[in-house]
Amino acid sequence: QPQLVESGGGLVQPGDSLRLSCTASGFSFANYGMTWYRQAPGKERLFVTSITSTDGSTNYADSVKGRFTISRDNAKNTVYLQMNNLKPEDTAVYYCYARGLWGQGTQVTVSS
Fold first, then answer.
1. How far apart are the C-alpha atoms of 50 and 10, rounded to whole Å?
2. CA–CA distance, 5 with 56 (Å, rounded to integer)
3. What residues have CB less than 8 Å from 79, skipping those under 6 apart?
């Protein structure tokens, strides 16, 4: 059945970089826009970034503009989130979303 699986999270220091991956299976990945959300402890899940299925247009939350980059590889059924210059406030569980599906999330912790 359709599913999304995130990976790549971890514990990093402020200023470091991480690349998250979300691999899709069970549906036609290339036909769907993909979105990353994040949820910090005790807070609501918030939009981070999205990429369309058509022309690859992207959209970012103001809090990550200039630091995060979303991309997709349709041949690998995977969407990526490159996160640079990470800050403690980026600490959260990161989820990918598409066609009504959520992945299980991957934890990103930014701490010195």
1. 22
2. 21
3. 21, 22, 24, 34, 36, 51, 70, 71, 72, 73, 96
Q: Quick: pLDDT tens for 70-100.
A: 999 999 999 999 999 999 999 999 999 999 9
Task: Check: CB of residue 22 under 8 Å from CB of residue 6.
Answer: yes
Q: What is the rounded radius of gyration, in angstroms, for the C-alpha atoms of the chain? A: 13
DSSP for residue 67: T
pLDDT band at 110 (very low <50, low <70, confident <90, very high): very high
Q: How would you class 84 by CB atoms within 10 Å of its CB: exposed for 0-12, middle for 13-18, buried for 19 or more? A: middle
